[in-house]
Amino acid sequence: MKNNSERLSDILSWLDSISYIKTEKIPEVDLYMDQVTSFMEEHLKKTKRSPEDKALTKTMINNYAKNKLLPPPEKKRYYREHILMLIFIYYCKGMLSINDIQTLLNPLAERYFQKTSEPNLSSIYEEVFGMEEEQIAGLKKDIIEKFAMSKKTFTDVPEEDQEILQLFSFIFTLGYDVYVKKLLLEKLVDNFREVTQKQEPDTGKPMKEK
């Protein structure tokens, strides 16, 4: 059985192995449903908790379209921009409610879906996910610091209890960070809603919502 230091090493190695889907890997041709799920499964498999989990299913995609998170396909074919939207949804769904994801993504779909000039959905995607390397470096540093903090806890308990309690402390410290950031995300989504619902200057009418 691994000790906590070995677990930390595994976590840091895993972080080095994951990467966002580069736009050049997304097919230029339109895809059918089975091709979409296969593509997402292949490129997101390292982010799944277990091999049996599905990154994306037909039911999920249909529900996203039903809930207006995803523009509908044309003649059962999905564009490149559909893939980009699905990736955004995939990363958001573990952090935000359906309503919050709609607040974030509906304005993007309305403004930039199938737009040829920049900014368009592809350029926005690359700009946002292009910060990944810097984000991972900062995340690894933060994880190491929190692990060091957890090693200072429960130093006075019996040795057979120390490892499990320090691991619990490490998990809870990371969890509290996630908890606070989730609250912050929700507040920022509310700010985003206010910004995107401002009246259009040319028409004086509220922006349409999907």
| Average pLDDT rating | 90
Report the strand count: 0
Order of helices and strands: HHHHHHHH
**Residue share in helix:** 55-70%
Structural class: mainly alpha
Assembly state (oligomeric): single chain
Q: Please state the CA-atom Rg, rounded to the nearest Å.
A: 21 Å
Question: End-to-end span in angstroms?
Answer: 51 Å
Q: Given the structure, what is the number of helices? A: 8
Largest sheet: none
Low-confidence segments, given as residue ranges, are 201-210
- The proportion of residues in beta strands is under 5%
Shape: elongated
Structure description:
This protein is mainly alpha-helical. The chain is built from eight helices and no strands. It has helices spanning about 5-15, 35-45, 60-65, 80-90, 100-110, 120-130, 130-150, 160-195. α7 packs antiparallel against α8. The radius of gyration is 21 Å and the shape is elongated. Mean pLDDT is about 90; it is low at about 200-210.
